[in-house]
Fold this sequence. Notes:
The chain is mainly α and 325 residues long. It is built from 16 helices and no strands. Helices cover 73% and strands 0% of the residues.
Amino acid sequence: MLAYVIRRVLYAIPILIGVNLITFVLFFVVNTPDDMARMQLGAKRVTQAAIDHWKAEHGYDRPLLWNPAASGLGKATDTIFFRKSLRLFAFDFGASEDGRDIAAEIRTRMWPSLALAIPVFLVGLAVNVTFALTMAFFRATYLDFWGVVLCVTMMSISTLFYIIGGQYLVAKLWHLVPISGYEGGLDAIKFLILPVAIGVVSGIGSGSRWYRTLFLEEMGKDYVRTARAKGLSEAVVLFRHVLKNAMIPILTGVVVVIPLLFMGSLLMESFFGIPGLGSYTIDAIQAQDFAVVRAMVFIGSVLYILGLLLTDLSYTLVDPRVRLE
C-alpha cells in the first residue's frame, strides 16, 4: 500500500513541474514583461522609460533564466524564473499588481467558495445517485423514459439560464432571497440558498444520466443474474450489489472533484457576488493581473493532481485487485 502511494506521488511531481514550465513560457516568453507593462499602463503611446519603470516596480526587470550581472547563487536566483515561477512550489505567490498579498487573499476567499461548493457537491451527489437508482430500478418503464427525457432536456439548457432565471423568479419576483451579495457567519445562508439550489438543479441532467448508465451496465453482468437466481429481490440486488460495484467509476468522477471545490465556481460566484476564489480569478483576468492568474493556475494544477492521487487511493478501498497489485 505504501509503495503504491509513493509511486503515485512520484508520478505527480514531473506533471506539476511540466505545468509550471508551460505556465512560465506562456506568461513570460509568449507574453513578455514588456507586453504586460503596455497592457497595464493602457496608453497608446507608452514610452520605454515608463515600461522600464513599471517592470522595476513589479520585479519584471530581471533576466528570465540567468543573471550574469549577479554573483554566486544570485545568477540563478535573481531571475524572473526563480522569483515568479519556482517560488510557487513553496506557495510563495507574492503580491498582486495592486500590491495586495495573494496568499492572504486566497486564505480569505477560500471560505466563501467552500461554503458554496461543498453543499452543491454533497446534495448534488445524493440527488443524482438517488434519481439514477430510481430510473434503473424502474428501467424500461414510462418513469425511466420520462426521466431520461428530463435529463437530456436539463443537459441541453445552459447554466446561465438557470442562474438568470433563478435570480429573476426567486429573488426579483418572489423576494424570497437576496439576488446577490454575501455576509459572513450564519447570515451567509440566505445568500447561499439560491446558488446552491441552482448548482444542484443544473447538474441533475448530466449527473443522473451518467450514473444511470453505470447502474444499467452493472445490472447486465453475470453476478447480478446469479444474485437474482438466488431469489434476492430487485431492490436488494440494486442497492447491495449494483451500487457497490458501480462505486469504482463513480469514485473516478467524484473524488477527483473534491480538491477542486477549493477553487469555487467562476460563473456562480460572479453572478451572485460571492467573494470567493472563482470571482477572484475572473476579476484578475479582467484587470489583467497576471500575478494572481499565475497563482490560481498553479493552485488549480496542484489541486487537480491531488484529486487524481485521491482517486487512485480510493480505488484501494473498493477494488481488491489494486491492493493485490
